[in-house]
Write a structure and sequence with these properties.
Strand order of the largest sheet: 3-2-1-4-5-6-7
Number of strands: 13
Order of helices and strands: EHEHEHEHEHEHEHHEHEHEHEHEHEHH
Radius of gyration: 20 Å
CATH class of the largest domain: Alpha Beta
CATH topology of the largest domain: Rossmann fold
Strand content: 5-15%
Largest sheet: 7 strands, parallel
Bound molecules: uridine-5'-diphosphate
Distance between the termini: 9 Å
Number of domains: 2
Low-confidence stretches: none
């Protein structure tokens, strides 16, 4: 049984790393392929978890659109499948990498397992292109590792055979716990030490992230307006690791530079980001992963989107969908900062044993 694990972006790497580690721990061989749909941000994650790819497609080119990217991934994966035989390919979530690797495997009649399966908005334009990527990957997949019961229900409604769906929790919680343990045991790095020195952490920290295509333009401009308003409070420091996408960088640096309590910084490596989350009072973010991680740290997330495929956190009171209307964001921030205690008691996205469940399932399948 030859297994290939394939991913391309930072969040996929964070969420697939626990599976790689669990496979190694159980002495189950696998090969790792990265498309490097993100380069710098991906490499930091690989290094932190000690993962060395067997294949690195280094796929990105300047101004490459989604069609060209998709065509390159298909062709490059086919070249790999031509030279080495695999029985099972594991892909993750909703990226162009996941969808195209799944398609390349399907064309070669290789089985596909989909990690973080079954998330849906059922609006193919939101998030774009992720919603279609995950539905497409789900149609191809032979095995579906659903993070929650809701995700499983979505798959069953789409007539996926229930014996092929396993509810595992989200592997991002595994990654978070692995990282918190390392921090507890003394892990630090330059980014963490620089943050301590630069910011001091005497005020309450509001952590901000944003990267979604659906918010490019007006969405990010509105977020900046909201942050400018929030920065008038003297009891908070706003820390914003700005995503490397120029559609984000241009607006954010243009609108928010030189404000004393808004700290615009480069995207953080994963352990530094986890450390910073653990020091924060409130997070404002459009990130899926952050919505899934924050409940384990008991930190509320204001989600700057109009819809989310992660309703479990909203229903449990761990996050609030605020959209990008500046006054709505401000009102929610002020409301949360008044609260003494945050209500979210359990993390609806998992408890840290997802990777083991997935590997146990694979072991039965391998036998
Ligand atoms: N993250 C990180 N550094 C940062 C911002 C986020 O390592 O500066 C991590 C975060 O902990 C989470 C993941 O990146 O696990 C989320 O990635 P992103 O928001 O880019 O994508 P999404 O989760 O929405 O797919």
């Amino acid at each position: 049984m030859k297994i290939l694990i394939c991913f391309g972006t930072r969040p996929e790497a964070i969420k697939m790393a626990p599976i790689c580690l669990a496979l190694s721990q159980k002495n189950i061989p696998y090969k790792l392929c990265v498309t490097a749909q993100h380069r710098e941000m991906l490499d930091q994650v690989l290094e932190f978890f000690g993962l060395v790819p067997d294949y690195d497609l280094n796929i990105m080119q300047p101004n490459q659109n989604l069609n060209v990217l998709s065509a390159r991934i298909l062709a490059d994966m086919d070249a790999i499948f031509k030279t080495e035989c695999f029985d099972l390919v594991l892909v993750h979530g909703d990226t162009t990498t996941s969808a195209m690797v799944a398609l390349a495997a399907f064309h070669r009649q290789i089985k596909v397992a989909h990690v973080e399966a079954g998330l849906r908005t059922y609006n193919k334009l939101s998030p774009f292109p992720e919603e279609l990527n995950r539905q497409f990957t789900g149609r191809i997949a032979d095995f579906h590792f659903a993070p929650t019961e809701k995700a499983k229900d979505n798959l069953l409604k789409e007539h996926v055979d229930k014996s092929k769906v396993l509810v595992t929790g989200n592997t991002v919680v595994d990654a978070l716990f692995i990282t918190l343990e390392k921090i507890k045991n003394g892990f630090s790095n330059n980014a963490i030490e620089n943050l301590k020195e630069r910011i001091g952490f005497s005020k309450r920290i509001i952590l901000v992230t944003g990267h979604r295509r659906e918010s490019f333009g007006v969405g990010f401009e509105n977020l900046c307006k909201a942050l400018l308003e929030i920065s008038k409070r003297q009891d908070v420091d706003i820390i914003y690791p700005v995503h490397l996408n120029p559609n984000v960088q241009d607006v954010v640096y243009n609108k928010l530079s030189n404000i004393a309590n808004i700290h615009l910084i480069k995207p953080l490596d994963y352990p530094s980001f986890v450390w910073l989350m653990s020091k924060s009072t409130l997070i404002i973010s459009d990130s899926g992963g952050v919505q899934e991680e924050a409940p384990s740290l008991r930190i509320p997330v204001l989600v700057t989107r109009e819809t989310t495929e992660r309703n479990e956190g909203i229903n449990a009171g761990c996050s609030i969908l605020v959209g990008t209307n500046p006054s709505k964001i401000n009102a929610a921030v002020n409301e949360f900062l008044k609260k003494e205690k945050f209500q979210c008691e359990i993390n609806p996205y998992g408890n840290g044993d997802a990777a083991n469940k997935i590997v146990d399932f694979l072991q039965t399948y391998i036998k």
